[in-house]
Specification:
The chain is mainly alpha-helical and 236 residues long. The protein is 71% helix and 0% strand. Helix 8 crosses helix 10. The longest helix is centred in the C-terminal third of the chain and has 28 residues. The chain is globular, with a radius of gyration of 18 Å. The protein contains eleven helices and no strands.
């Protein structure tokens, strides 16, 4: 009879974390329609405008996680995430950061920069979900904040799907506007390496490992609920 109190080894624990990908929002009906070319320009713009608030909150979330890190080595790795989004060095081209890349996506779908950055199109459900994520990162142990970022394990595929399907279904969107998706594929893989290492080494008892799975599910639910809110705000 299996002992349900024993910790999983690293391989089994990682497999269980990755198995959570079945609940990733790549499977949400709105995302399926978006990548199948079934969304109107208004729905595409609504999605871009609302997901921008998530981009807006990510570096704030990452700063909150880092503020709880006592170890300089981890901070040096984690700060790269903030720079990826906010920009670094001369803030030009690839150094401009993810928020600028998303702004270019907004402009490519027909949203003026000032309108996007005003956040006036953000619906309450999306704002609530993103704010909840920032609040979690501020108050949780830093290892739990790192664990919550492991949805990055599933992100490369959703970006690859957009790069393949959007030019076909939405030829009215300038190709350069999709640079955010291109940039995130290698960056997500890099971030996962660090996040997995922290998670596998910190959550070492069965109870702690279950806690990690619950945290990852919380983040997956949060991303799913954002699409629920967007879908309701922009019906077919």
């Amino acid at each position: 009879m299996a002992d349900h109190t024993l910790a999983w080894d690293h391989a089994e624990f990682e497999n269980r974390l990755r198995d959570k990908g079945t609940a990733y929002h790549i499977h949400h009906a709105f995302n399926v329609r978006l990548n199948s070319g079934e969304c109107s320009p208004e729905q595409v713009r609504g999605w871009v405008a609302n997901r921008f608030y998530y981009q807006w909150c990510i570096p704030i979330k990452d700063a909150a996680v880092m503020s709880n890190m006592p170890d300089r080595a981890h901070r040096r790795l984690w700060i790269q995430r903030m720079l990826d989004h906010d920009g670094h060095d001369d803030f030009q081209g690839a150094n401009a950061g993810g928020m600028e890349a998303w702004t270019r996506l907004g402009e490519a779908v027909g949203i003026a920069r000032d309108d996007l950055w005003s956040l006036k199109a953000v619906v309450p459900g999306v704002r609530f979900a993103c704010d909840a994520y920032v609040n979690f990162a501020r108050h949780a142990p830093w290892q739990e904040g790192v664990c919550s970022s492991l949805t990055e394990m599933f992100a490369p595929q959703i970006h690859k799907d957009r790069l393949v399907t959007w030019p076909v279904h939405y030829p009215w969107i300038e190709s350069s506007g999709l640079d955010y998706f291109r940039s995130r594929i290698p960056l997500a893989s890099r971030d996962v390496e660090h996040g997995l290492k922290v998670t596998l080494e910190h959550f070492t008892t069965r109870a702690q490992q279950q806690r990690a799975l619950d945290i990852l599910q919380f983040k997956l639910d949060l991303l799913w609920s954002m699409l629920d809110a967007i879908e309701k705000a922009y019906p077919a």
